[in-house]
Amino acid sequence: MIVDETKAYSGTKVLHITTAKPGSTSFLNFTKQFPLTDFHGRAMFFLTRIPAAGIHWDLIDALSTNHWEIGGMYGKFILVVDPPDHGLTSNTFPTGKWFCLQWEFKYGGPGVDNSFLAKMDGTALDKGMFTGADSDGKKWDAGPWKNLNIGWTGYGSSDVDIEEWIDDLAYNTAQARQPHINEIFATIEQWLADKTKFEAVDILREFDIPCAPVLTMKELANDPSLRASGTIVEVDHKQRGKYLTVGSPIKFSDLKPQITASPLLGEHTEEVLAALGYDKAEIASLRSAQAV
């Protein structure tokens, strides 16, 4: 498995996987638990050839309460949800061109069946929908997700060496995400529905996802770290009394700006006029004329 700069689908770099016969395994592994019950994703693939023998092989597989796979057999797509429920589709596996595999696991909620949908280039694969339970009536579940493999996994002796390129993993570019932005927002909103913003941030930071809570005015006023850093300061006004305001965003080791209350209307008028050269009589005349 290497990074290739000659065959990228988008951008300049792509993952290049080669496997020698008999069949072997080479894949990207994501082992962190994904804090979602709905699990959507996609990846672009390019294969030069596929095994002709009747062996089962995968490009994508994942583990939650159940195990699922998107792969091939006899030159066709095969889809597996374990406990055993699978289907050999009528869709021919493409070679010699880029194609997109997309998966959609949806959590139905209490009393509603979960579902798994697989697509190629935006079109659902034949027999590509599993809903609720396996062929024996055993209900299968979805999430939370623990493991995701994207690459090549062979379950038998291949008759050919495999060359594979993988790009645009799980919406890894802004261009790839944009057509699905409403779906992404809906999934985020559903996940956030039963969590406070502080609970959500604590979970997301475990997965190194940059995030921060948006604080209310009351939370800002009572945040001790903002007070300690001088970001929020309390000032004393001659008429309003004490109130909170924003501190200086510029701070240096030898410069700590002092934030004071705003002046009263006309509080410094005489001082300014005197600095401009007016004497007391002239200032008094201006006040008498209500010019100031």
Descriptors:
alpha+beta, 2 domains, seven-stranded antiparallel beta sheet, six-stranded antiparallel beta sheet, 35% strand
What would the principal axes of the Cα set say about the shape?
A: elongated
Please bin the fraction of helical residues.
Answer: 10-25%
User: What's the order of the H and E elements?
Assistant: EEEEEEEEEEEEEHHHHHEEHH
Instruction: Please count the helical segments.
Output: 7
CATH-assigned fold name of the largest domain: Jelly Rolls
Question: What's the gist of this structure?
Answer:
With 292 residues, the chain is α+β, with helices and mostly antiparallel strands.
Q: Could you please describe the fold and organization of this structure?
A:
The protein has helices at residues 174-177, 181-192, 197-206, 217-221, 224-228, 269-275, 280-288, and strands spanning 2-4, 14-19, 25-30, 39-47, 57-63, 67-73, 76-82, 85-92, 98-106, 115-120, 123-131, 147-154, 162-167, 232-237, 241-246. The chain has 292 residues and is α+β, with helices and mostly antiparallel strands. The protein folds into 2 domains: 2-192, Sandwich (Jelly Rolls); 217-288, no CATH class. The strands form 3 sheets. It has a 7-stranded antiparallel sheet with strand order 1-2-13-4-9-10-11, with no helix packed on it. A 6-stranded antiparallel sheet has the order 3-12-5-6-7-8, with no helix packed on it. The radius of gyration is 32 Å and the shape is elongated. The mean pLDDT is 80.
